[in-house]
Amino acid sequence: MSFHRWDGDALILDVHLQPKASNDMFAGLHGERLKIRLTAPPVDGKANAYLLAFLAEAFGVAKSQVILESGQQSRQKRVRIQAPRQLPADLGLTVRPA
Fold it and tell me: Please, where are the H alpha helices in the chain?
């Protein structure tokens, strides 16, 4: 199993979030999830909002195209990115099927 899959033109990511880190970055794998470190604190939904903005910038889409599907109160999250315009090279993502 992989940390990502395609659902039509949407990319689904299974993420392990590490809030309150020293910098914002993709940090490899945590089990079968993509580990993301963010500087945002895990209070009042700030880390979730920051995660969505971080992913929007990384995948070249508007923030409204990034949806947190599950894991609002957990470090284990599932995120949907609608029609990503770019794929970060360091993640090794497969291109959307035709």
Answer: 46-59
